[in-house]
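Translate structure to sequence.
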């Protein structure tokens, strides 16, 4: 910005100051920065810490008020619960998976069947093609992408991953 006295009036007591913008006072800079107008957020009287001006709204587990603005949990019990939830091994409820597949009418397509006579496994086929007998359902699974053989989800993930109700 350039400050220049105005030549419009020359009274003894009145003097005017006119602010004029320079076209590009600094070459290579955008006009708002070159003119001295900052692109930075203006300072506020309250400093911003840890991504929030007012602190958290409450306990991360239950939502109640915390004892201080820096606390994440309302008590030690919720801090322990949060830690245990973060570090537990993931388990999948097999009954929920089955119910969802039934709702989509896709349970048969994602079930591995095994023939009781010859021991051959099939994906989504209830009757053995060679023996012409009904097969027993083993559980959810699919075809292996490499060899195209039926693979159970339990075989892939190991025992104890699914909880059975």
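Result:
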């Amino acid at each position: 910005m350039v400050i220049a006295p105005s030549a419009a009036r020359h009274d003894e007591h009145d003097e005017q100051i006119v602010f004029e913008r320079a076209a590009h006072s600094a070459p290579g800079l955008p006009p708002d920065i070159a003119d001295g107008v900052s692109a930075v957020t203006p300072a506020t009287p309250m400093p911003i810490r840890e991504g929030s001006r007012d602190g958290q709204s409450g306990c991360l587990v239950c939502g109640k008020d915390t004892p201080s603005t820096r606390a994440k949990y309302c008590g030690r019990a919720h801090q322990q619960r949060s830690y245990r939830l973060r570090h537990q091994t993931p388990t999948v409820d097999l009954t929920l998976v089955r119910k969802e597949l039934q709702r989509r009418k896709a349970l048969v397509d994602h079930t591995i069947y095994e023939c009781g006579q010859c021991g051959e496994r099939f994906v989504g086929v209830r009757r053995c093609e060679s023996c012409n007998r009904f097969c027993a359902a083993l559980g959810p699974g699919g075809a292996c992408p490499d060899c195209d053989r039926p693979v159970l989800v339990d075989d892939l993930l190991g025992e104890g991953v699914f909880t059975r109700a």
